[in-house]
């Protein structure tokens, strides 16, 4: 039985970000730029049918707000027409919108939420 061939060792990276290929030629490696993901605001929109206590419950349960924070956001929704429930990455924001919308429909409320990109500073 012959031993299995050994895999070639991984190339060693030098501080100047160059390495040698199999023919001994020098290759320059590019650094990739890492950017923070774009953030999205989850907004609760006002309607005339969803009870205020339900909105507070949603903010506490899905957005982990304290009762005081939830009350303030609920009042902003009631008086200004919308309120920011939280700021998240796109996937998290869309998931929260879907979860809360499903919960509201199941409870028989027309609560609306949207996720919109946060303005760049």
From TrEMBL:
Entry keyword annotation includes Kinase: no
Species of origin: Deinococcus carri
Database matches in HAMAP family: ClpS
Family membership noted in the UniProt record: Belongs to the ClpS family.
A molecular-function term among this protein's GO annotations: peptidase activity
Hydrolase recorded as keyword: yes
Record domain Adaptor protein ClpS core: where: 36-113
GO BP annotations, alphabetical order: proteolysis
Protein's UniProt name: ATP-dependent Clp protease adapter protein ClpS
Subunit structure as annotated in this protein's UniProt entry: Binds to the N-terminal domain of the chaperone ClpA.
Known function: Involved in the modulation of the specificity of the ClpAP-mediated ATP-dependent protein degradation.
Keywords: Hydrolase, Protease
Sequence ranges of Polar residues compositional bias: 24-33
Residues covered by region (Disordered): 1-33
A Pfam family assignment: ClpS
